[in-house]
């Protein structure tokens, strides 16, 4: 017996040690797995500031529930403050607080509070992770994506309207709310530019030439399209590499400027979203209805100065509306526009939302303070109450 026991016990011991090791290994794997799961479901733990990755994870869940009415997210791209905040303040005053939300991308560190804003609606609505934006460069797209990513975190946000700091509303809140909610489509200005010299052949095959689109940067997206823009990891890198603005002429460089002027020139924000949406149609079959889900026009009216000479590149510029230009007659002309003509595609868009004919434009740019003041006093966004202005100044 003892012999047998003596013979058995080392085997048993080895067996126990072996089992112990297995347990340790198993436990470590289990712990790793649990940790991974936690990271996956609570990505904030790993990167509290990275709202993009957080949203990317969130956006893979197809449907969310939310209480209350669907909201419009107003996304302001500002250089610094919002000079027309008094007009927007009055606009939001006439809204139901549950029907909208506000996000502002401004210069990093700029805070909206009583010292920088005339309307409480903007207090602390700035993104905390905003970046330095160079106008006409890809940082502009990054800022748009940050705004969309942050706004996507609120499941009640169902429409995402991008606005500049010189944009004004042409109607009261309830009109704009029902206009946008009545349509299940995005409004993305998107057209072919036959004279285009901005497409870079190296963008192919990700962005083939026939998917290259141009359009106003001022878009309004439905939620699923906002997710497409935030999730994009394919088209953006191509843009960053091959769609760059040509540096401005620098007289101190003399002859070097000739070479500079021959460099490829591209303004990313005028191409990114329309091209992205056209590309998804091409890249991924599930998205094949994407371009069909958009109204191919912008909701933001811009008046271009066409008197500019061809030589002067800078002159092809939006006209700024001053007090005298914002007369009721002028405003009515803009609000009465019911179709847009895309010459390069011989396309006429009769403006519609959910198959009902509507005015084309809900917003307009670029408006000076004086012009915005005139809209306010004419009751464009709601009944005008002069005491509101006096009380806040
Ligand atoms: C909002 O504007 C629309 C159209 O301009 C008008 O019919 C409506 O009465 C206005 N609503 C409010 C609450 O002012
Ligand atoms: C707010 O949303 C509700 C529900 O969608 C809607 O009935 C109401 O008219 C909206 N209010 C305004 C001022 O647009
Ligand atoms: C669009 O119009 C149809 C028919 O009038 C209506 O049944 C539908 O609810 C509308 N869609 C939205 C999103 O309001
Ligand atoms: C249009 O551009 C021309 C030339 O740059 C300028 O003289 C004119 O004032 C501009 N018009 C408006 C309405 O801004």
Automatic annotation (TrEMBL):
> Which N-terminal stretch is annotated as signal sequence?
none
The reply to whether Calcium figures as a keyword in the UniProt entry is no
Note the superkingdom of the native organism: Eukaryota
Report one GO cellular component.
membrane
Key words, A-Z: Glycoprotein, Glycosyltransferase, Membrane, Transferase, Transmembrane, Transmembrane helix
Major place of residence = membrane
**Locations listed in the record:** Membrane
Q: How does it sit in the membrane?
A: Single-pass type II membrane protein
Which ranges of the sequence are coiled-coil? none
Which GO MF terms does the UniProt record name? glycosyltransferase activity
Alphabetical list of InterPro entries matching this protein: BC10-like, Glyco_trans_14
What transmembrane ranges does the database entry give? 16-37
The name of this protein is: Core-2/I-branching beta-1,6-N-acetylglucosaminyltransferase family protein
Source species of the chain: Gossypium raimondii
């Amino acid at each position: 017996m003892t012999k047998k026991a003596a013979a058995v016990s080392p085997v048993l011991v080895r067996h126990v040690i072996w089992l112990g090791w297995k347990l340790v290994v198993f436990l470590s794997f289990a712990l790793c797995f649990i940790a991974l799961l936690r990271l996956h479901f609570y990505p904030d733990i790993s990167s509290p500031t990275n709202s993009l990755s957080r949203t990317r994870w969130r956006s893979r869940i197809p449907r969310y529930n939310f209480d209350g009415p669907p909201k419009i997210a107003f996304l302001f791209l500002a250089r610094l403050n919002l000079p027309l905040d008094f007009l927007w303040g009055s606009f939001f005053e006439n809204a139901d607080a549950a029907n909208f939300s506000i996000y502002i991308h401004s210069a990093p560190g700029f805070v909206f509070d009583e010292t920088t804003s005339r309307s409480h609606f903007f207090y602390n609505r700035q993104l905390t992770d905003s970046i330095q934006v160079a106008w006409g460069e890809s940082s502009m797209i990054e800022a748009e994506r940050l705004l969309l990513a942050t706004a996507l975190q609120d499941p009640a946000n169902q429409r995402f309207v991008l606005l500049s700091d010189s944009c004004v509303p042409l109607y009261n809140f309830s009109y704009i709310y029902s206009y946008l909610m009545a349509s299940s489509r995005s409004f993305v200005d998107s057209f072919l530019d036959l004279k285009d010299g901005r497409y870079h052949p190296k963008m192919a095959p990700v962005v083939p030439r026939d998917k290259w689109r141009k359009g106003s940067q001022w878009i309004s997206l439905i939620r699923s399209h906002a997710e497409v823009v935030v999730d994009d990891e394919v088209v953006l890198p191509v843009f960053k590499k091959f769609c760059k603005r040509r540096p401005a002429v620098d007289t101190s460089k003399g002859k070097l400027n000739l070479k500079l002027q021959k460099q490829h020139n591209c303004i990313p924000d005028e191409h990114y979203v329309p091209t992205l949406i056209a590309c998804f149609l091409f890249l991924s079959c599930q998205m094949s209805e994407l371009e069909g889900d958009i109204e191919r026009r912008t909701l933001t009216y811009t008046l271009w100065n066409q008197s500019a000479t061809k030589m002067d590149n800078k002159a092809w510029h939006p006209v700024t509306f001053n007090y005298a230009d914002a007369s009721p007659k002028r405003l009515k002309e803009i609000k009465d526009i019911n179709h847009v003509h895309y010459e390069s595609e011989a396309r006429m868009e009769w403006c519609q939302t959910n198959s009902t004919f509507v005015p084309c434009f809900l917003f307009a740019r670029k408006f000076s303070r004086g012009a915005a003041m005139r809209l306010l006093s004419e009751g464009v966004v709601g009944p005008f109450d002069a005491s509101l202005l006096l009380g806040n100044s």
